[in-house]
Every structure is written in C-alpha cells, then in structure tokens.
C-alpha cells in the first residue's frame, strides 16, 4: 500500500481545520496554565490538574500547529489528531457523566461544550482529509 501525500494546494480546508484546532487548543491551554486557580474555582477541578492539562494542551496545540504549517500534511499524523480529538471528546463526556472531576454546574456545561467543539474539529479534519484526497 502506498502513502497518499496531501500537498498544500489540495489541503487548504484541512490546513485551516488543523490551524483552528491548534489555536483554540493552545489558547485553552494557556488559560488553564496561567489562571488555574480561578478557573478551578469556576469549573471545579483542582488547580494542579488544570495546570497539567494546560501543559498538555499547549504541547498538543503546538504539535497540531506544526502539522498544519507543513508544506505536506501527513495523512497519518492527521488521523492521529482526529483520533486524539475523538478520545478527548469521549473522555470529557465521561468525566461529566461519572462525576470524577467534581465539576461545578458551569464546569459540567463547559466540559460538554468543549467536547462538542473538539468533536467539531475532528469532523472538519475528517472532511478536510477526504477533500484533499479527492481533489
């Protein structure tokens, strides 16, 4: 089986979906890292956990941004981003349903809203990958 290379001119939509994901994820990570105490008070989870999540989100956002900036976008790397976005979405819903993170009401709403946004990024990335391959 040969790998399909997604080049810049065929990948505008995919590149935009990845870049938007990177910006939103990195921004969210910055907020969690810089304002863990107040965000924890508002949402419920412990500030130390939010700092850890913030570091992860910053690193993940940077990696997705790097992928989006490449001249050639790797379909395998894009599929990994999609898979991780789906895992994040399911994990976010699970934390609300199980109550494991002791969310406030606002925190539970935020977690579900965030899950919907991440699922939307995954869907846009799936569409972008398909569109890039079909052109």
Profile the largest sheet.
2 strands, antiparallel
Principal-axes shape call: elongated
Q: Beta-sheet strand percentage? A: under 5%
Helix coverage percent of residues? over 70%
Q: For the residues shown, what is the average pLDDT?
A: 94
What is the distance, rounded to the nearest whole angstrom, between the alpha carbons of the first and last residues?
20 Å
Which regions contain 5 or more consecutive residues with pLDDT less than 50? Answer: none
What would your notes on this structure say?
The protein has 135 residues and is mostly helical. It is built from five helices and two strands, in the order βαααβαα. The chain has helices at 12-34, 36-43, 47-69, 75-98, 105-134; strands spanning 6-7, 72-73. A two-stranded antiparallel ribbon has the order 1-2. Helix 1 runs antiparallel to helix 5, helix 2 (36-43) packs across helix 3 (47-69) and helix 4 (75-98) packs antiparallel against helix 5.
């Amino acid at each position: 089986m040969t790998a399909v290379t997604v080049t810049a001119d065929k990948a505008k939509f995919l590149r935009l979906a990845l870049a938007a994901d990177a910006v939103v994820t990195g921004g969210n990570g910055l907020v969690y890292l810089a304002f863990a105490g107040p965000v924890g008070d508002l949402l419920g989870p412990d500030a130390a956990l939010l700092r850890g999540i913030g570091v992860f989100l910053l690193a993940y956002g940077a990696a997705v941004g790097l992928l989006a900036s490449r001249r050639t976008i790797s379909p395998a790397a894009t599929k990994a981003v999609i898979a991780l976005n789906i895992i994040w979405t399911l994990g976010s819903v699970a934390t609300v349903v199980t109550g494991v993170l002791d969310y406030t009401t606002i925190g539970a709403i935020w977690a579900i809203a965030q899950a919907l946004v991440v699922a939307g990024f995954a869907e846009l990335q799936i569409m972008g990958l398909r569109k890039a391959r079909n052109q």
